[in-house]
Write a structure and sequence with these properties.
Chain A is α+β, with helices and mostly antiparallel strands and about 425 residues long. In chain A, about 50% of the residues lie in helices and about 15% in strands. Chain A starts with a helix and ends with a helix. Chain B is of the alpha/beta class and about 230 residues long. In chain B, about 45% of the residues are buried. The chains are: A alpha+beta (about 425), B alpha/beta (about 230).
Amino acid sequence: MYWKDILRRSGQSLKQAKVRTLLTAAALAVGGFTLTITLAAANGAKAYGNKLIDTNFNPSSLIVAKNKHIIGPKGSIDKPQPYNSSVIASGPNGKLVRVLDQQDLKKLATFKGVQSVFEPYTSSALYITAKNAGKYTGSIAAFDPSISHQFAAGRISTRLTSRDVVLPQDYLSLLKFKSASSAIGKTITVQIRQVLGKQETKHFKVLAVLTAPSTLISGNINTTLYVSSKEAKSINDFINQGTINYQHYLTATVLVKDGTNPAKLLATQNAIEHAGYGAISAKDAQATISQIVNVLQIIILVFGLITLIASFFGVVNTQYISVLERTGEIGLMKALGMSNLSVRWLFIVEAGWIGGIGAIFGSGLAVIVGTLLNPWISKQINFSNSSLLIFHPLEILALIIFLILVATIAGLLPARKASRLDPIEALRTE
Amino acid sequence: MIDLKHVSKTYGKKDSEFSALNDLSFSIPDNKTVAIVGKSGSGKSTLLHLLGGLDRPTEGQIVVNDLNLTKLTHKEMDKYRSNQLGFVFQSFFVEANLSCYENVALPLEISKVASRKRKEIIEEALEKVDLADKLKSKARTLSGGQKQRLAIARALVNKPKVILTDEPTGNLDSVTGDKVIELLFSIYREQKSTLVIVTHDMDIAKKCDIRIYIRDGEIERIESIKDKDKDK
């Protein structure tokens, strides 16, 4: 028999038992739906992670910390140890961490390949205000020109002076500015306070207005005002003076010369790590995010596969019933000269058809439902402008082929039974 | 030419051995009508299955059109059935949910006739059994007689050299049965093939050139056309 005839005949057989076919295919469709959504969610999460790194990390830079392990449980110190000025309490739970000091920053600048060392000097302001406006919370940090920013108004051609500030867009209406462009050149006031209560007032002129990045590495970027590095350090030193945090920093950003060249970036990273520091590149951060996403993906995929196993036995059962119901037909086909192999293929292909219908229906439904609900879901989980679900056509095609293969394998045993039927016995059934 | 030499068929193992056919030998020349007559359980259907290559004899040799069936491989036997034989069964075995066209197309698909050639052949076959107007009708909509005519169309579509029929009128009323027998005989004459009919209906058997009477797995007697003429 020609393949096209086997394909057509097996399809016709399925049409004769529509309800049974559809119900069996529906079980496979559930698996197809789950797997398609899982793959799309993993794609979305990875893409979000990559975007997150791209918009917040300079690919030529390294994030350096005193500890070898910046991320993970080994990043903090869990046991009491002799006093060391570089060990301080940090974080909301007061965990002990080793921190960088001024000497570390100077030392980092001496490593081969290091172009510059950048410390954001992030501090909390007492409040931020402007003329005729109320007082609002906010933080101050040094502007990092190596990260690409998007501006609603204004631009930064050279370095910031000590009077310049880059204002996040969210402050515009709060500080009574009509628009981003109207805020340029206007004065804002930043009030800072030491632990012991001494306060200082700083005045800045708005140089540029920053639009909210589509992806945020931390939740407070929309509330951070950027000033020059020198001014940020001055504010940080003023606030932390007399405390253990004075001139101590959790991380610093090291910009590597020609760091877009992976070999050069890695050489500098190795040198810094060899000296006892911890250093991660944007690529490392991406790998860490991918690893987390992969683990979550595997967990959900396991559930999808369990559904598939159930569907597998559904197909086996359906095909066995089909063989029993069509014993006479099988006998006739054999009497007319159809080979055992052709009979076998007829039933294998039939199972494949069920797989194909289930896979296309499940994956198709996942794409339709996913596409329709994507904006709402992404908004609910605060994915900003990014999509949680990203469907790759080739990936879906591969999944459909996989599901067809699963159903085809499920059809092997019933097909074997059909091919081994004695034609005389089969013809007696009618 | 169909030639049987000392053909026996036994079923079961030593303790429960059952002899369905015992030492059958006869020859049927080409272009003859043959009735295999006997009571139920006499072994006539077993003989038909052996002639049709659906089963193999335990002993002896069957040669059909110079093909020694006892020596054919599975693949060769499939080819023999698809190219040289046409089967008509008592139970029709038509696919109720398929059209008449699709039912008749099955043997052509099995013997790998090119799809572009099929339409004409199928239409011709349906024309012969007077079902040309039912080309696209589902087989389930046909009457019993029409279903058997459809089965005949399916059997003759490959222009077989031998047509094997097993109680072709068993499920039909006498009027319809007569029409089906007339149809089988007219096709036999037109295609110049050998027609073998397994039956216990003597009226049908009397129309055949050769009558082989089987009883308890053995040939009771063989009547040829000369004897048949005597009966008239």
